[in-house]
Design a protein that fits this description.
Blueprint: E1 10-15, E2 18-24, H1 25-48, E3 66-70, E4 76-80, E5 94-97, E6 100-102, E7 109-111
Antiparallel strand pairs: 1-2, 3-4, 5-6, 6-7
Length: 120
Amino acid sequence: MINQQDRSDLVGIFRGGQTIILKPVYDLLHDISKVANAFSTAQRQAEALGVFTSDRELLECPDCGLLEDVASDGRLITYYKEDGVIEDTGLRFQEVDRVHFCCPSCKCIIELKDEETNHE
């Protein structure tokens, strides 16, 4: 039996005082890093294809009524609320910073709502 104090660089699952699985911490960190990099790459590829990655709320312009939606195939689309027809305009809100976006139609600046407090 390996005592955890003898190998502080190892992690494992312990049952009844015995180690069942051992793996060096640096191996776990390497594995986590590989998964994070793969996820980041997949997210960038999805965004390049126009897929909405759900990393922020969908936007709606309070001035002109242009709003974002997600099509059944996952693509981000925009249309005008008052038109009553969901047909992609091809317009995309431009990120000004992490919480502000510019409407491509009327140039209104939209602030994302704070998800924790639900306030702007």
